[in-house]
Every structure is written in structure tokens, then in C-alpha cells.
Amino acid sequence: MISYILRRTFAAVILLLVVSAVTFAIFFLLPRIAGQTADQLAQQYIGKSPSKADIAAVKHNLGLDQPVYVQYWHFIKGIVAGATYDLGPTTVHCDAPCFGYSFKNHQAVWPEMTSRIPVTASLAAGAAVLWLISGVVVGVISALKPRSFFDRLFMGVALAGVSLPMFFTGKLAQLLFTVQIPIFGRTYVPLTENPAQWANTLFLAWCSLALLYSAIYARLTRSGMLETMNEDFIRTARAKGLVERTVVVKHGLRSALTPIVTVFGMDLGLLLGGAVITESVFSLHGIGEYAVQGITDNDLPKILGVTLLAAFFVVIANLVVDVLYAAADPRVRLS
Amino acid sequence: MSETKKTDEAAIPQQTPASEGSADREVLLRVEGLTKHFPIKKGILQRQVGAVKAVDGIDFEVRKGETLGVVGESGCGKSTMGRVITRLQDPTGGKITFEGQDITRLSTGQMRPLRRDIQMIFQDPYGSLNPRHTIGSIVSAPFRLQGVEPEGGVKKEVQRLLSLVGLSPEHYNRYPHEFSGGQRQRIGIARALALKPKLVVADEPVSALDVSIQAQVVNLMDDLQQELGLTYVIIAHDLSVVRHVSDRIAVMYLGKIVELADRTSLYEAPMHPYTKALMSAVPVPDPKRRGQKNERILLRGDVPSPIAPPSGCRFHTRCWKATEICRTTEPQLVELRPGQRVACHHPENFADQAPQDTVLLSAAKKASELVPDAALSDGPAEKEPVAEKAPAAEKKPVAEKEPVAGKAPATEDTASEEAPEAAGSEASTSEAAGSEDAPEATASEPAEAAATAEAVSEAADTAPAPEAAEAAAAAEPAEEKTGPGAKSTPKATGKTTGKPAAGSGAEESSDE
Amino acid sequence: MTELSKTGAAVGEPAAARRSEAFLEVRDLKVHFPTDDGLVKSVDGVSFSLEKGKTLAIVGESGSGKSVTSLAIMGLHRLGARGKNVRMSGEIWLDGKELVSASPDEVRKLRGREMAMIFQDPLSAMHPYYKVGDQIVEAYRVHHDVSKKVARARAIEMLDRVGIPEPAKRVDGYPHEFSGGMRQRAMIAMALVNNPELLIADEPTTALDVTVQAQILDLIRDLQKEFGSAVIMITHDLGVVAEIADEVLVMYGGRCVERGPAGEVFEQPQHPYTWGLLGSMPRIDRETSERLIPVKGQPPSLINVPSGCAFHPRCPYADIPKGNVTRTVRPELEQVSTGHWSACHLPTEDRQRIWTEEIAPKL
Asked: In principle, which of A37, B271, B357, C135 could form an S-S bond with B347, CB 3.0–4.6 Å?
């Protein structure tokens, strides 16, 4: 088990390195393929009509005149040891996990990101709880009475949930319940400040996001349960004389849930890397919004930082899921 | 045969016209020392820590026009063998010769022309047909893959094949799910026969089918063989079916062929104890025979793990005749009677190959409780001290100790007195290893080997003792190391206990 | 009695006077499943009885209704998605209780305690996530109000009884860590943990090797002797039947075509289908015959069971009885000799002649 986790962690680190290298290469190469020179790139970071000398200085300071692998090396070194950026008049020190420095709004990427993590995490966690519970419950009930009225109704709702876009349901809910009937707040309040307010302001975002996901999870659970309830071991459980509820929960659901946990981990990991649409619909200043900023501003350090953070969450979620899976299913051998 | 086509003729020139009948027919496929190991990898670096020895050195040949049956329990490697000889999997070692051509290391591309000649039929008539393809396109696939245009067009040929296997030509445009299991197996056979192969390897062709359908398919395969002069290798676990279809039969156990003989000899006078046990376990549809327990040999436990197969003869952990030599020395597959090859030190129905070695392993004693006296004595008992001794040892486990103790004054030290005990404790470990539990087998294997070394040191007098003790100390490599040490063991034990044992057998019988 | 009641609930009140004498008696059992394609008549009028200490073998091919019969006795056919609208009629008397009209919960309480079942594939029949011991403990605690510790001791005792070495250790093993034979032993331990009086074994050895099969059959026989329970053995292998059965019931197309003492059914089989089964089997105890004698054609569809005798399209003797009777009239079970019944239109003399002159010599 320990050896397995170690091996997986090692693999995760390698994977993150590869992701960062690829992202780095893409953002380094793309502008060049598009025909931009290092000068033009450097120019973005200075005001209008810069002098040749200014450009050269910025270019040098940012290392844009160096080969890509040297730039990448500096980036990695920055994460481990921190970095100092010489901006001509001033020098900026960026502390140890230095994921770069945005010259557009003159801020280090890492503190900016960490300040946004709680927002995204609040959104993701709340929605996850909602969709997991509702999705699984609906899925199980549908599976136990396939083709019943209830089954058809919920599967219909689920289909609608999947097909209606987030910016539609989200915007609609927001208009209805914050403007028409103002029962929910519109500005994010941190959990530590006021938990009730925190939940109140996030509730609509949770629901909109959960509607989408619980639809998927209900369908997953339903098909998983339908399959499991046809397994031989379910028949054995019934042959023992167990009451149906025990058969369903202890023998059926336990097996049906395992693959769902896998998907759940991945989804949660993905969401932690930024729920782009939800965040913008509900004006939440989370990771997703930060990513959008980076892209619209063509701000390489931001994009790189968010990409790495998202990758990190996905990789960690994957690792956790695999370990959980092994714990749930004794047939999975970790060694 | 009006159907003989270019495809056939093109391939024919290399071969001499054969089939003069019976045993001396031309060899179509020859397999020598074939092995197939599946590596087991472990740890952070995925080092190879062992191998599943699915097929571990087998030799046989298939003659033109005959049917070779291969039987064995699950995990004996028979299916792997089938996939390796058709080169669906690459062998780890050994040599496969088809029509005189070495095909062991041919690449996929080089194998392609040979695919016409070697075809396979699989067990699962549901899984082996693509549900999205029509019967027509499934059966005609070999033509497309080989780029062969049969006379009269593909469709006509496919319809001919369909009627050949007892299906209606109108089934051409139907899909597999419209057919029952038996019909699907017929489709599989039609596909295999499309290119007029010379060799058909069938892996459990009828075991997924109902009894009445099974008979239909067996008869069909029989007819096709007559009609098209096919050569079959039929792999199955059902001994009755194998007996019905085969001319010669190979019995496999843990990756080895333990007996290879023509049908009649094998079923009438099996020589390997495993063959005998296997056959006696087949239930017979005759309730009158139920009471006759003496025909039933009940093997204890399961087949040991192919990852760490038992030393010496692989069957010794479950064999009621096993002696010291069975644990230390692997018996070779030798032709003891014309047309009957067997790998056993103490064959049934034949003179003992290691008559000096008579001390039963305690595993064997335990196993022999499950073997009726009739089975033990129905060999030529007069010639075989073992057969005589077996019931004696079984009834009185102490009996074995007596002769040794009796001999003790003659040899000077008490070591020999302890020998049976050591052997006993060792054999019980070996049984634990071999009997029930595959995963544990690995763990207790070194223990067994160590015990072996101990037994050697105790039994084989004082002189070799230090070496043997060393061997015992080095537990892991003991398997190799016991080799030389152990060789002296059978002699030693043979000397000390052989004659008195026979004597005690006599005593025992006079008691009765 | 023939009218089908929905969901198997209440088939009128079978009068207590008609209560069965035998330990297990099944009377005119019908189990029909409505599907989109039509009504699947899985079991269509099967009757038999069984005493304690005796073994009945139900023989038939896939789709003959042998498994559904056993599931119906256990009350398992009406659970799960497929059982929602099953139609069932007839009577099942187990030790004086009628099960068809009993409430699902009453049947549940009998399940596992008075009647238990073992299945074909022990690997899929055991829950892969739970330890073997825990699964046996669960089976025991459903019907016995005891602590986990007591139940565990009982589980170890049962594992030991069915011949699993080191039961105290293996009790904590998972099913996938057991070999096929050991798993089936554990299954048997689980089924017998409550000392059931009826044990139903559904192809218990089909997935096993012959040597292991012999061990398991031996074990079932021994346990039956020890506990005196009634055993229903469902199988397609006539060898297994001969090995273990006192009585044989041959099923075809959801109906019973022949029933009788094992010796008689093998010695003097009275139905062409039984002949077909015997002729299809290669036998290890006889000289090899050149060819097997298969039953021609395919098994019937349970939605469109052939009219008259369900076997007539495959029967080589269907034209012997006069007046097209085999195609129009469903044959009833008739007693041939004491306790030996057969449902066939062939006149007894013809059957006798065909068996002794045509079939028996070829086997």
C-alpha cells in the first residue's frame, strides 16, 4: 500500500512536470508560430510607444531572449526557491512557491491564486455534496423501479438538466431569486466570516451546478444499479433471506457506487481547477475567473499558474480515487 | 472433392502425398520443448519477480488426418498451449514445426500465409462473433484478409460453407444474435474452414453448448474431418468428449504433458496416476455404479500454483504413490509401451521405474486414504513393492517408523531414526503448500526446500551433513541446491528402509 | 387452480385439508413472465414431491425451466426487475406451509433458514467486496439473534465442516483469494449455516474441474447424510444425476416430460427426449460408439412453445401415434410403473420396443 502510494506520488510529480513543460512550450511557441517576435512579446508588458531600450530591458528581464528550456528551468527553479524579477527601477521578489509574476497587473501569481482557492473550493464542495446525494438517491430509486412513472419523470428531468446550459439555468435562477424574489445574496462572503451568509450567497450557484452534475450522476447510478442488481451475488444475498433494503444498500449500492466514486473524484478535481462558467455567471472571484482573465489578457504567467493548479487538483483527485478504489474493492491489488 | 481450389493446390506442392494410414502418418505439426511463461512484475521498478509457467516444456506431434485431444484441469496450460501452437501468442522457448517449416519465430507478416493452413475454433460462440456483422461477412472475412477469391465468388462459397456446417444458405444476411449457441458454434466452424485449413485447433469447442447440441457439433466436426481430411487438435476439459473425438490424447498437468497415448491404451490402461484419477472422477450416467466406490479416486485439494510448481514430479503433492524421488527428480516423458508415453516414476499398470524408492511421502499417505485399495492393487502388484506397501502405510502410519527403528541398530547413529520424522514434517508442509492455497504456495516453498535439506542431512549419514546443513541455512536458493544433495537421498532412504518396508508390507498382509 | 394469479399473491386459500404429506410438494407450478415479445412460459405445470434425506435431480437443457422452478420454490423469481410482474400459480408445500400464497416476507423468513441454495458459479455468487467469513456470518445472523462473535465461531465451524483447511484463517479471506473448489465449499458452508431442511443446488459443479466436482458431490452427499436434508440438484449432466440422485425429473420446454426413480429412468427411460439426452452423451464407461445420437433441431422458444407435445418437432417418433395427436394434444404425465411417470403419446409397447431394440444397443 505504502509502496503503491509512493509510486503513484512519484508518477504524479512527473506528470505535473510534463504538464507544465507542455503548457510552457505551447505558450512559448504559439505566439512565435503566429509570427510575434520576442520584442513584440516584451512590448505587451510596457505602456504605449516604448523605446527600444525599454523593450530590450524587459526582454532581458523576462528572459524572453533566452532559449525555451532556460526559461522553463527558471520557472521550475522559481517554484522551489522563489525568484527575483528585475523591473528596471524596482526589483520584485516572489516567494518560494513562485509560479511566476504577472507583469500586467504587477502581482505574483501564487498569492493571487491561493486567495481565490477558497471561493472555488466552496463552490465545488457545496455543489458536490448536493449532486452526489440527489444523483445517487434518484438513480437508486429509478433503478429499483425501472420504467415506472417515477423513473421516467426523473430521467426526463435529468435529461433536461444535462441539456440546459449552465448560463441559462444559472442566470434564470439568479434573476428569479436575487432580483425578483430577493431571498439570496449576490456577493460572496467567506465561510470564516459568516457561515450562514456564505451558504446563502452560494446556494444558487450550488444548485445550478448540481443540477447539471446530478443529472449525470443519476444516470450513472441508475445504470450501475441496474447492472449490479442483476449480479449473481445479489441473488445470493436474497437467498440468505436478507430484507430487500439490506440487499439494495449493503450488497447492491456498495458495488454500484465504486465506479461512481471514481468519476466523482475526477469531476471534483476538475471543478477545483476552476468552474469557469458558473463563476462568471455568479460573479465569483475564483480560479476559473482568474483563468479567464489570464486568457483575455494573454498573460502567460497566469495561464501557466492556473493550468498547473488545475492539473495538480486532477492528479491528486486521481490518486485519492485510486487509493479509495483499492480500499473499497479487495480484488484490486496495489502491489 | 469438387471444391478443391487454387488455394489448396498452391499450398500442396511442398507436401508429399501422405495418409497411408494409422500411426506412421506424416507429421503435420511438431512441438519440441515448448514453453510459455507469463512474467509477474512487482515493485516500484516493475521488476520481474517470477513467472506463471503456463506451459513448461512439452513435446508432441500431430500427424496428418488425426485428432489429438488435449485434456487437463483448468490452469494446466492447455488453452495457452493452443494459442501458442497457432502462434496467436509467442512462445517463450522451444520449437514449433509445421509441415517441416520452423514457425516458432515467424513474424505476424510471415505467419499470414500460414494462417490459411492453421485455424482456430473458440469456446465461446457468443463472444467470438462480432454482433454487428452479418453471418456472410463473418464467414467471408478470411477470404478478404487473405485476398483469396474463391471459385464462383465469395458469396457462393460462403453459402456452400454454411450448408456444409448444417446451416441454411439463406442465413447469409442474418446477424449472430438471431442464432442459438449451437448454430453460432457452427458459424465459427464455417469461418475456420473457409480457407480449407490443414490444421484446426479447437479450444473447448462444445463446452458452452447444451448436451443435445454438443452431440450435433461433435458429429459435425467428425463428418468434416472425414470429408475434408482435416487434422484436429481438440482442447477440452471433458474427458468423455475428448475420448469420443480423439485418436491420441495428451493429458496435461501444470504445464506439462504427463501422459500421451492413443485413445484405447489411455482409457483402458492409464499409466500416469493423474490420468487414472482424472478418469475415475468423471461421473458416469449409470446409477448402478454409484455404490462401487473402489472405482473412484478422490484427489485432495486443488492444482498447485503454476507460479511455483512443486519440485520434481509436479503431481507429487497430490499423488498417492509419491515417494522421495518424485519430489526430487522430475520424471521424463518416456515411451514405456508402444504409442504410450508417460512421465512417472511409479506408473500404473506397468513396472515401477524407481523400484528402489519405496518410502511414501506423508502427503501420499494422506492422499492414499482417498484411493480405494482396489485402485492401489490393481496394477501388477507382485512386481511392485509400492503398490503392496501403500495400503499398509495407509492403515498404520507407525508401520513406516518400525522398519527404520528396526534398522537403526545396524546403522550407527540415531539420525536415521529421526529421518522419518523430518520427512514427515517436511511432507506436511509440502502438502500445505500444494493442497489448497495457491497464494500461499509461494511462501511455503522455501520452507519445503529447507525441510528437504534437513531431511537430507538427517538421512544421508554424517559425512555430507555439513553441506546439507548449509543448504538448509540458505533457504531461498535451496531449490537448486538441494538438487545434488537430494540425489543421494533416494539411495540412502532406499537402503535404510527399502527392504524392511517390504517386509512390513508382508507382515501387514499376513495380519489380515 | 390453473388460472394465473398476478404477482403470485393469494391463489385463493388452499384448504388446509389439501395440505401435503410430503416434506416438499410442488403441484402444477406455473411461472410466466410477460415480456415485450410475449408471455414467456418458463415453467408450465410442474409437479413433484420430495422427502427429507432424498435427492431429486432436475435435468434439462438451458431454457427448460429447471432453474426457474428452483427459484420459484425459493421465492426468488419475484424479486428484482424481472419479477415485478411475474405470474405464478400452483402450490408449493414446504413442511406444511404453502409458499405460493404466502406473503413475500413470510417466504423471506424461510429463505436461508429452512431452504437454502447454492449456485453454479461461486465466484460471481459471492460478493467480491466482503470477506467470506462475513458473508457467512451475515447469513447466520439474519435468522439467529446472536453476537458477531458467536456467528463468527459458527462460520469457522462450518468452513471446517466443508473441508476448508485452516478455517480460522480463511474466514478472513476474500472470495477471489479462494480457488474454485474452495469457493464452492464456502458457498455450501454459507447455505448450510442455518441447517436448512431443503438444499437446492443449481448446477453446483458445472463450473468446476472433474476432480473438484467429485470432491463437491462427495461433500454434498456426506452433508446430506449428516443433516438429513432434502436436496434438489439441478443439472444438465446425466453423469452427475446418476452419481447423486434418488429421483429424476426431466424437463423440456418448461414442462416435466419424465419423472421417476433414478435407477428406472436410466434403465428404462420412457421419453424420447430422455433417450436423446442419453444418446448425446459420450460415455467414458462404455466402448466408444462411432457416432453420438444427437437430438436434431434446436431447443424450443418459451414464448411459442410448440403445440401438442413440446418435443414433437425434434422427436423422431412423432409420427407413430395416429391422428396427428402429437401436434395437437398436450400429453399428460402417465404412470408407467410405480413412481415412474412419462408424458408421451407413444404407446407403451412402442416405447418399450424402440428403447430395447433401437436406442439401448447404441448407447
From this structure: B271
C248 and C336 housed in the same domain: yes
> Alpha-carbon distance B488 to B494, whole Å?
10
- A134: helix, strand or coil: helix
Cβ of A232 and C124 within 8 Å? Answer: yes
Please indicate if any CB of chain A lies within 8 Å of the CB of B6: no
C143 touches chain A (CB under 8 A): yes
**Residue numbers of C between 38 and 77 with CB closer than 8 Å to A:** 74, 76
Q: What is the ipTM of this complex?
A: 0.87
* Last residue within a domain, chosen from C145, C177, C195: C195
CATH (domain of C205): 3.40.50.300
Listed residue (A316, A4, A2) closest to B44, CA to CA: A4
User: Is there a contact between C108 and A232 if contact means CB atoms under 8 Å apart?
Assistant: no
Contact B52, B40 (CB under 8 A): yes
Which domain-ending residue is among C149, C172, C195? C195
Quick one: B378 exposed, middle or buried, by C-beta within 10 A (0-12, 13-18, 19+)? middle
* CATH match for B24-251 among 3.90.1170.50, 3.20.20.140, 3.40.50.2000, 3.40.50.300: 3.40.50.300
Fold entry, domain A110-328: MetI-like fold (1.10.3720)
- Residue C209 falls inside a structural domain: yes
C10 inside domain: no
Chain A residues 126-145 with a CB less than 8 Å from chain C: none
Give the number of other CB atoms < 10 A from CB of residue A132.
Answer: 21
Q: State in Å, rounded, how far the first CA of chain A is from the last one.
A: 7
Q: Where are the domains of chain A?
A: 2-109, 110-328
Partner chains of C (3+ C-beta pairs under 8 Å) = A, B
Nearest chain C CA: its distance from A246 CA (Å): 11
Question: Helices marked H in B68-107 — which ranges?
Answer: 78-85
Q: Left if phi > 0, otherwise alpha if psi is -120 to 50, otherwise beta: which for B32?
A: beta
In this complex, do C281 and B219 lie within 8 Å of one another by their Cβ atoms? Answer: no
What is the span of the domain harbouring residue C183?
121-195
Q: Is there a single domain that holds both residue C177 and residue C229?
A: no
From the CA of B181, how many Å to the nearest CA of chain A? Answer: 22
Alpha-carbon distance A99 to nearest alpha carbon in chain C (angstroms): 43
For chain C, what is the domain count? 2
Please give the single-letter amino acid code of residue A31: P
Q: Does B41 touch chain A (CB under 8 A)?
A: no
Q: Which residues of C touch A146 (CB under 8 A)?
A: 81
| CB within 8 Å: C283 and B435 | no
Per residue of chain B (512 residues), what is the pLDDT tens digit?
A: 444 344 433 433 343 333 334 456 789 999 999 999 998 877 656 778 888 999 999 999 999 999 999 999 888 899 999 999 999 999 999 999 999 999 999 988 888 888 889 999 988 767 778 888 999 999 998 888 888 888 888 889 999 889 888 888 888 888 988 888 888 888 989 998 888 899 999 998 888 888 888 888 899 999 999 998 999 999 998 888 899 999 999 999 999 999 999 998 898 899 999 999 998 888 888 887 765 655 678 887 778 888 889 999 999 998 888 898 999 999 999 999 998 999 999 998 888 888 887 777 777 777 766 666 655 554 443 333 333 333 433 433 333 443 433 343 433 343 334 444 434 344 343 433 333 333 433 333 444 433 443 333 333 333 333 343 343 333 333 333 333 333 333 333 333 333 333 333 333 333 33
Residues C167 and C207 reside in one and the same domain:
no
The residues that bridge with B53 in the sheet, in sequence order, are B37
Cα gap C327→C310, rounded to integer Å: 8
Instruction: Please give the distance of CA C194 from its chain centroid, rounded to a whole number.
Output: 21
Backbone angles phi, psi at B134, to 5 degrees: -75, 165
Q: Are residues C304 and C363 in the same domain?
A: yes
